[in-house]
Structures are given as C-alpha cells and as structure tokens.
Amino acid sequence: MASPVPNSETFDQYRVIDNEQFSQHLTRFLNSKSDKGYVLNLNAEWGAGKTTFLQCWYNELSKSHPVVYFDAWKSDFSKDAMLALVDCFQNQLKNPRSVNKKFAKDLLEKSSHFIRKTAPSMAVGYVKHKTGIDSDESLIEDFNETLGLDIAEKECGDALKEVLKSLVEQRKKVEGISEFKSTLQTMAASLIKSLEDSDTPKTYPIYILVDELDRCRPSYAIEVIENIKHFFDTKKFVFVVATDTGQLQHSIKAIYGNGFDAHSYLSRFFHKTVTLPPPSTEQYLKSRLTTIIGDDFSFSDLYITQMLVSIFDWHNMTSLREIDKVIQDLDLAKISGKQFKILPLTILAVLKRLHSTEYAAFTKSRVNPYRRDHNARDDQDYLLKNNAIPSVTIGGSKAESFESILFYVLVGIDNSSSPSLWDSIMAGSVPSHNSTSAVGAVSDRYLLNPNGEASEFPSYMKVLELSGHFE
C-alpha cells in the first residue's frame, strides 16, 4: 500500500523547528525499552507541531523499523477504535508474501469477537468480508467450541443466542487477549523475516505512531488509548501516542466527572510522558516573514524581532498554528499593495483571535485594551497577560512596561512620526520623557509595502475582516 505519510515530510524541510536531534534521542531510548513493549505519551499543546514531528519521524524510522501511522481523526467516524486499529495494522504491516498475508488474516479473526461486541452490524460485515466467515455460522461455532456445547443453529433461538453470546464474549475477552497479542507478535516476526533479504531490511521494535487524538471526540480518544493498552501493548511493539495531555485530562473529566482523577487514570496507560520541545518563536517568525517582507527591512534591525516575539509572548500565544494564522493576516495585507504598519496590525490580529470583546471595543470605539499607567487601580478590567515580559527602553527613553508599549502602538496607528526621530533612536538620544514618540517611530519603521499608499485605520479592519473568510 502507499505510504500513509508523504515522503517529502523530513526534518530537513523543517530546520527552523529543529527537532531531529530530539527524535534521535527518543529513538535510542525507546529501542532500549522495547523488549517488553512500551507506550509513550508525547505531550504538546494543540498546534505545537505534533503532526509535523510524527510524520518526519515516521520517514526516519521507516529506514530501519516497521512503522504504523494511525491517524485517529480519520477513523473517528467509525465509532469503533478496535476496528480502526486492527484495520490499520492489517493494511500497514502485511507483506505481499503469502505467509504474512495469512498472519494478517489471523489477526482479523482473533480480533473479531472484540470488534463484534462494540459495533455488530458494521464489524460483522467487515470481518465476513475480510475472513470469509459467515456471522451466524461463526457465532454458533463459537458457542459450541468455547462453551463445550453441541447446539445446532436451528435449535438456537434469539433469546438463547443473546445469553450464549454474552458468555462467549466474556470468556473470549479474557482468553483472547493473549491470543491476539501472540498473533500480533507472529505477524510482526513474519514481516521482519520476509524483509531480511530485501533492499530494505527492518529490525525490531515495531513502531506505532498515533496522531490527531486532539481532534477526536473525547470518548473515541479515550477508547483508542484503552484499546492500545489492553490489546496492543506487547513485546517488541512501541506506541507513541501524541496528545495535548492537559486537554485530554479535561476530556476524561467531561466523561467521568469533574472529581475524577484524570492524571492517575492516564498514568495507567503510559509508561512515560515526554514533552515535545517547543520551537523557537523567533526563528519561526524570521523564517515565515522573510518570504513576506522581502527587502522591506532586515530582521537584523534592532527592534522588530524583539517586538514581535514579545507581542505573542505577552498574550500567551505560544501555538505555532495560531501564530501562523496571524502571519497569514500580514501576508494578506502585503498582497493588497497598501502600506501597513506591522506592529499594530499584528497586535490587532492577536486581539481578534484571543480577545474578541476587546477587539470589538477598539474597532468600534477605539477603547484601548492596554494599560499605560502603572498606578492604575488593580480592579480595572485589563487583559490577562504574561508578566514575565521585561520592560522596554527605546533609544534612551525611560523604561516602559510592555503593556504600555502595546498601548502606544495602537494609539499611533494613524499617526506619523518624524523621520529624524528614528535617527535619534539609533543614536540613543531620545529624551527620557518621550516614550510615546519613540514607540511611534519604531512602529513607523517596520512597514509592509513601504512605497505603497499609507493605510488608515479602516483599511486595517478590512484586511482582518477579509482574513476571517479564509480560516
């Protein structure tokens, strides 16, 4: 079958994220833990690059190991995690050689009673299609073989069928787990042996990368994890389950109740949790914005990188996926051909996504959501922020809190500063009391389409309104 991951997804394509070394450490660690089987939780918040990492790692691991890539979101509709997992294994681990095909068929047969219990109509038809066993015939055979009975199909009424079926299912659930795991191991051994003399020999362990749980229904995400632990956690198999662990714990509580200990519950399913290293926001911004700004200015300039990173950090926008949406807004403004100030446009784009009420108040009535007065009363309704962002000194002016800087940037969105003021900033000779003008000069320095017609405030709103139609 075709690879479930594009071959183009490699760590070389994402140097700015730079997680290749982390993947190598992880591979060495998991290889050393694989003898008895291992289930690792790879934790990162939504939008932090879990899918990119897993797909790049898949292509790297595939050079030496059999690898299964399970996209949980694609099977969420099936309402049966066991069925989806078995189908994924059967498709991605089977080998064209007939001996391995036999074990792939055995895997389906061994899992059939687990599947049938949870999704009778769909799963039984699926098993019949894959194995050639009729559902009623298989059911009567199960009764007689498992319970030591001798019942003909015509003697078995519907009520008796249900009772016997429950007994069979219960017994097979207990006895069948070890049989299922044994078949899984045999199938894996067959695959590795069949590839010994090929151009691409593989070695243990078998890696299974589970992705996109964040997008699934909470009940389905939990079912996937439970099935992995109960049925697939076996020798020489390594599972890496990518989750937003905090969000997953909330999902568990939504099902079992707020008082439920979701942390302890999850710890039963994972041997260890590791957190995907966060990429450098600064490097990511430089990489993405270089293609947008062209030669308009250089990121080696004194303030632009510091200001952009601080804007995202102050608002606690750490997800690269969300940051990229803001960058797409800048790209849309660039395409318009008009001149836009990057800093106020970025601030407004962040506000629109994280603080819609304050964004609406500013766009309609110019109510500035930021505080410029350090002595303002604490009970005033200002935005929650990251207090770790240090104060900023621009060109000799007095140090200002970053919130004050944000305030001044929005105040000056329609204003223009004297070009000579930038020279004073670079010379460090701005009067200490002139912070507002200094911030205005910095904001005026960094422009999209610097030779275009200067945009007034309504144009900023139009760009951000238009961007909403592209999400």
UniProtKB/TrEMBL annotation:
InterPro entries the UniProt entry points to: KAP_P-loop (IPR011646), P-loop_NTPase (IPR027417)
Pfam families, alphabetized: KAP_NTPase
Domain of life: Bacteria
Domain KAP NTPase: 20-331
Protein name: KAP NTPase domain-containing protein
Organism: Vibrio toranzoniae
